[in-house]
Design goal:
Strand content of chain A: under 5%
Strand order of the largest sheet of chain A: 1-2
Radius of gyration of chain B: 20 Å
Helix content of chain B: over 70%
Distance between the termini of chain A: 49 Å
Largest sheet of chain A: 2 strands, antiparallel
CATH architecture of chain B: Orthogonal Bundle
Order of helices and strands of chain B: HHHHEEEHHHHEHHH
Structural class of chain B: mainly alpha
Strand content of chain B: under 5%
Largest sheet of chain B: 2 strands, antiparallel
Oligomer: heterodimer
Shape of chain A: globular
Shape of chain B: globular
Helix content of chain A: 55-70%
Number of strands of chain A: 2
Number of domains of chain A: 3
Chain lengths: 462, 319
């Protein structure tokens, strides 16, 4: 019996077995999504396959291709059989936008350890950048009838929104990053409010944002002559941008600047002593995080075709923070999962629960006060999540993993080093030039350390 | 323009000092907690808001029971204040016990996150109760002292005098308490150095709990006075008012009790001035809607140029 278990376990550890099992699971959930109801459950199961994929030992490239096929082909195709195809794609698009924003906030909060409570301001900046110039709003303050700009220029507005947000990130960061952590939280909170108040009131003396009324009839973007108007088209747009963001974040995490962020997060003074330029490092984190948010703001404005200041309240900032805290600060898979869960909770689960309770109330089954309706309870739910996770599990659902170390590769490097220098290799002391090689060694036998130690060590290796 | 400014100045000053008294007493809660734990108690604004709701609930309850006309006003006010102070004080202690004490040795980011969580929970619980009982989360309370005194061009509510009097009493009381009593001495000792204070047989946890009780009670009492002064309250007033009170605390030098009082009054007067005069001064370009922006700009300016505040001492960070 015990032997059987061991054999099963070794077999399960083989990538090929994992691939087969995962493929079976994916196909099953995809088929479920295509042919059986209720779709939302199957949709979730299909998404969960991506999480399972993350835990397999398949080579990195295979994982990426696999995930790409699932989200770009399998998910839309299977969802297209149902009647609610477009509403599905709408949900998925929103999820994508939030995932990208959570990844951006994760750079600021998770990697660099700076608590930014006004993150939605950058999203608003991106959104207004698009909305103002791609509707006739800009005619109010720029003479001549140049606006709305031709919708083909949408792809140019993406980097523009990114840059505007990054610029404001730097502008806010320059004065603020000199103050200590706790103040930063309060100042960013204030900044988020300032941006909202300004957008809310900038309809006079010059009408730039149209104030509280908001900007409507924003042009739909056009790609090579194709006007994007259906959710599934936006889905692919968001998917492409999300891939870009994920790629950038992954590359940044283990780059020089990424290690500097983590060093600053763990101990500013120690990092400074190691030669990390504090202000510049923090500024880059701010700008990078802000730029992802601005990018998604442009997409948001294009998708909604209408924006007003109520979409950019503090609650939204905290929502994104909850995604990061829930998933795990600094952990990319965690943040992605957190963002997906919170978005689903927000736009799918709570409204449906509310509807259900309302139906029960009207049917007279139960007496349910409307004050308690779940869609109004966002703050309570988010608050409880924040407290519980802060007290009991600050590392989040999927704690950030340090790099994987391949013991075999390490041993080989140690041997080489020994041969070169004749020195002895002690456990725990890594050869200095082995840093990059171990970083890239494909992972078996993952070594996970506590987050704090990790950062300190990475700080020390800079 | 100048005569017009001078004409409205007395009214601006009176309103500003009233608002400043509110900021100052709420700022005390921030500054006391920060002085002892080096933690920004984000939930303090919500404690203030809870105090406002508790006070309003008591008055509405008394009113609908028909007792309000029979009891002397002053007794009712004192009773309401006492109950609200006790409840919000206990609330603050509970928050410390649940959300901050387990995290005392955690990285600095973590207690901030749980503090935001607490403030969200409080907002929603109060909203739920208010909406459930009254059908609307925006509540208009019973005003005890609503009479208005007209002194020439100046209009002063009777309640303004009460707010000012109560605020001054509370602040003077706190100042005396911290400087003259044994517990106050213990508080200052813990603020200076927790470990050494513990060695001097001071019960650090109890002192921290007391600090939270007193700060929260002051916040709660201010909430009651605020509801009396401005009439209408909603569960989200604590957020922006808390931010401004925090600004006041930073302005006066965080951790410094007298500094917080001063900062509160300065901020209140500046804000009232901005909301009354910003429009005329800029020729209508900027109006009163930018008064919140104004407060934040002050915060940023203070943090930039004098991060230790007007009365704080610059502390070098020890390694």
């Amino acid at each position: 019996m015990k032997q059987g278990m061991t054999r099963l376990r070794t077999r399960l550890r083989r990538p090929r077995t994992q691939a087969v099992l995962l493929a079976a699971y994916t196909v099953l959930s995809a088929a479920g999504l295509a042919f059986a109801g209720p779709p939302i459950v199957w949709f979730l199961l299909l998404l969960a396959s991506l999480l399972l994929l993350y835990y397999t030992d398949l080579p990195g490239a295979v994982k990426w291709v696999w995930a790409g096929v699932v989200v770009a082909v399998l998910l839309p195709v299977c969802a297209s059989t149902g009647s609610s195809f477009e509403s599905f794609m709408e949900v998925a698009t929103q999820m994508g936008i939030y995932v990208a924003m959570a990844l951006g906030l994760n750079v600021v909060v998770g990697f660099a350890g700076l608590l930014d409570l006004g993150f939605i301001a950058f999203f608003a900046l991106g959104a207004y950048t698009y909305a103002i110039f791609f509707s006739d709003q800009a005619n109010h303050f720029i003479p001549g009838h140049h606006f709305p700009l031709p919708a083909d220029l949408f792809w140019l507005c993406l980097p523009a929104g990114l840059l505007v947000a990054a610029l404001f990130g730097v502008l806010l960061g320059l004065p603020v990053l000199r103050v200590k952590g706790d103040y930063l939280a309060i100042v960013t909170l204030g900044f988020g409010e300032i941006i909202r108040i300004i957008f809310n009131n900038l309809d006079k003396p010059v009408n730039i944002t149209n104030g509280a009324i908001g900007i409507s009839s924003v042009e739909a973007p056009r790609f090579f002559g194709v006007s994007l108007s259906f959710p599934h088209q936006f889905y692919y747009l968001v998917l492409a941008l999300l891939a870009l963001v994920l790629y950038a974040v992954r590359r940044l995490e283990h780059s020089r600047i990424g290690r500097a962020w983590k060093a600053v997060r763990e101990d500013e003074i120690a990092a400074q002593a190691m030669g990390v330029p504090l202000t510049r490092t923090k500024l880059v984190a701010f700008a990078v995080g802000a730029s992802f948010s601005g990018l998604m703001g442009v997409v948001f404005a294009a998708k909604q075709a209408f924006i007003d200041p109520t979409s950019f309240t503090m609650l939204e900032s905290i929502t994104i923070l909850v995604m990061v805290i829930l998933g795990g600060m600094g952990s990319l898979p965690g943040v992605v999962v957190g963002a997906c869960l919170v978005t689903l909770l927000n736009i799918q689960l709570m409204p449906e629960l509310t509807n259900w309770l309302n139906t029960l109330t009207t049917a007279g089954v139960i007496q349910f006060p409307s004050a308690l309706s779940p869609s109004k309870m966002q703050r309570l739910i988010f608050g409880i999540i924040l407290i519980l996770f802060a007290v009991f599990r600050p590392q989040g659902m999927i704690p950030s993993k340090t790099r994987r170390h391949d013991p075999a590769a390490l041993a080989k490097l140690a041997a080489e080093w020994q041969a070169q220098t004749g020195g002895t290799f002690r456990a725990g002391v890594r050869p200095a030039d082995g840093q990059d090689a171990t970083a890239r060694a494909p992972g078996h036998g993952a070594v996970t350390r506590a987050q704090g130690q990790d950062g300190a060590k990475e700080g020390a290796t800079l | 323009m100048i005569p017009q400014l001078l004409h409205s100045l007395p009214q601006v000053l009176v309103d500003g000092v009233t608002l400043g008294a509110v900021y100052a007493t709420v700022a005390l809660g921030y500054t006391m907690v920060y002085g002892i734990l080096e933690l920004i108690n984000f939930a303090h604004g919500e404690i203030f808001m809870s105090g406002a709701f508790i006070g309003t609930a008591i008055l509405i309850g008394l009113n609908s029971a028909g007792w309000l006309g029979h009891l002397p006003k002053l007794l009712v006010l004192l009773l309401t204040l006492a109950v609200a102070m006790g409840l919000t004080g206990l609330l603050g202690m509970g928050i410390e016990r649940v959300a901050y004490r387990p995290l005392r040795n955690a990285p600095r980011l973590i207690p901030l996150i749980s503090a935001i969580g607490v403030s969200f929970v409080l907002q929603d619980v109060v909203r739920f109760i208010a909406e459930w009982r009254t059908g609307n989360y925006i509540v208009t309370g019973v005003t005890l002292y609503g009479a208005e005194l007209n002194l020439g061009s100046l209009t002063v509510k009777t309640n303004t005098l009460i707010v000012l009097g109560a605020a001054v009493l509370m602040m003077a009381g706190l100042d005396l308490f911290v400087r003259r009593t044994r517990w106050g001495t213990a508080m200052r000792a813990v603020a200076q150095d927790k470990d050494t204070a513990a060695l001097m047989s001071i019960n650090v946890n109890r002192v921290i709990a007391l600090t939270f009780f007193m700060g929260s009670a002051l916040g709660g009492a201010t909430g009651v006075l605020f509801a009396q002064q401005y009439g209408t309250i909603d569960p989200y007033i604590g957020f922006i008012l808390g931010l401004k009170a925090f600004t006041a605390a930073v302005l006066g030098g965080i951790g410094n009790i007298r500094g917080a009082m001063f900062g509160g009054f300065v901020l209140g007067i500046l804000e009232m001035f901005a909301s009354a005069e910003l429009g005329p001064l800029t020729g209508g370009v900027l109006g009163a809607e930018y008064k919140d922006v104004f407060a934040f700009l002050i915060l940023i300016a203070v943090l930039l140029f004098k991060p230790e505040g007007l009365f704080g001492q610059a502390v070098k960070e020890k390694v």
